[in-house]
Amino acid sequence: MIYNKHIFICTNQRAPEAPRKSCGEAHGMEIVETFKKKLKELNLPIKLRAQKAGCLDICDFGQTVVVYPEGVFYVGVQLSDIDEIINEHIINNRVVERLKLENVRARK
Known about the structure:
By secondary structure, this protein is α+β, with helices and mostly antiparallel strands. It is built from 3 helices and 4 strands; from the N terminus they run βαβββαα. Strands 2-1-3-4 form a 4-stranded mixed sheet.
């Protein structure tokens, strides 16, 4: 394993006339850059990478972020959620249940 935690953030963008919206359109790159900046500032003692990703095919649930090696999909992610994901999942290895795909899907 190259990274202890690998974070993929959807930045996919579809054409304006596409029937489905794209979760990366609203603020995908801003979330990527914010994750990178905050992780760099923290200088954690583990190998981390945050990077943009193409379509993760669950756009209907909003901005998607996936953390590996756990394979946890977070949906509806806002800039205000980044600190919580970093503190809970990346640092303390606790899933942010309110953003987890399975939990959001169950509420819909």
